[in-house]
Design a protein that fits this description.
By secondary structure, the protein is α/β, with parallel strands linked by helices. It has three domains: 158 residues, Adenylosuccinate Synthetase, Chain A, domain 1 (3-Layer(aba) Sandwich); 94 residues, Adenylosuccinate Synthetase, subunit A, domain 2; 159 residues, Alpha-Beta Complex (Adenylosuccinate Synthetase, Chain A, domain 3). The chain is 34% helix and 19% strand. The chain has 13 helices and 19 strands. The strands form five sheets. Strands 7-5-2-9-1-10-14-18-19 form a nine-stranded mixed β-sheet, sandwiched between helices. Strands 13, 15, 16 and 17 form a four-stranded mixed β-sheet that branches. It has a two-stranded antiparallel ribbon with strand order 3-4. The radius of gyration is 22 Å and the shape is globular. The relative contact order is 0.15. The chain binds inosinic acid. The site of inosinic acid has 21 residues, from helix 4.
Length: 424
Amino acid sequence: MSANIVIGTQWGDEGKGKVIYLLASRADVVVRAQGGNNAGHTVANGGETYKLHLIPSGILYKDTLCLIGAGVVLDPKDILGEIHDLSKRGISFDHLRIDPRAHIIMPWHIALDGLSEQFRGNKDIGTTHRGIGPTYMDKYERSGLRFYDLVHPEIFREKALATGKLRNAIITKVFGGEAIDLDKVIEEYIGYGQELKKYMADVSVLTYEADKAGKTILFEGAQATLLDIDFGTYPYVTSSHPLSAGVCTGTGVGPMMIDGVYGVAKAYTTRVGKGPFPTELNDADGDYIREKGGEFGTITGRPRRTGWFDSVIVRHAVRVNGLSCLCINKLDTLAGLSALKVCVAYKRPDGETIRDFPPTLEGLEGCEPVYEEFPGFTDDISSCRTFEELPQICRDYIARLEELCECPVKIIGVGPSREQIIER
Ligand code: IMP
């Protein structure tokens, strides 16, 4: 019937989980195409809260086929933990499938993630320490281990020993770290492979066949546009392509399959980890947004940096993802602030005003946000279910975001639960 992608438009944590969960309720197939367990989707439904890292949100619907594509990096220990925890809560994994091409996160990747961050000192990226970067490094260096290898003990033993020895040399000789007990780790991971092997299937073929059979497919993005390895704030980015285009390479499908791309943004901006953030607030308004919006990391618990909505970055996301529409989450969090600001452009140190997000950190340096101000609102909007029920100030705010971002707003989030949503 249709194939849609959900993408983050800012620095992640835009509430994609909620939009994905809503759209997954209408999908036959849900696909994760990139990233790993650095992602954290929180989904609240019927009084229950689920925190998902790698498992596609469609798992919460018992008949939905849930696919993990070739572009994902898979931590077998972590995913098994997730499967065991959710199974105890009555969730079935009969419909989970993992592509044999997906790369495996090994303990040496996690160790190297931590050691490289330490080595960078105060220039650290602020990664999630989940081994994401080092696993993608091995993939592109062509020395990675894939899910197919993991489930075949003889192949895995040989390949893991070869790459493990080299990583151990880097850990000990370059960083002065502690060597990993390769034999122990390899046997442990072979055990994980045996537990996971029942899920192995060619996700490219499954997705293609599902599309041909007229099924509804949802591609679930993780991380976000400004964390993209090319189009994000490099080097303060993740190591995959969280853009709409990443879905095609990460699943093994062509772009003509895609019917729509939903971009999710918060009504303000947040960021975890280091890197530029032009509209960041280091004042009482920023603290208010953090506390009211519960802006603490799902994975690491780190307090998130907070700031005003930045239409320069969301317009960038509209362009690089070819967004069909925007979903603006957490509008309710802004209630109670005396005034709201939206960044409409940046003023460069040479005085020039720019509206396109600069491609480099150097180009971004010294850029000051140019703000448009809106009156604040105090109304509790959490029970509004139509656009017309929203106070005029909120409607004006959304209408202006549409103009500035050059994209229609189709979904508005007004509270944490699945029902607290306005669809237009
Ligand atoms: P890594 O993905 O662990 O290598 O971390 C690289 C950067 O991406 C860090 O700033 C992380 O905080 C950020 N990051 C990775 N995954 C997410 C996510 O799902 N939400 C928000 N930030 C993320």
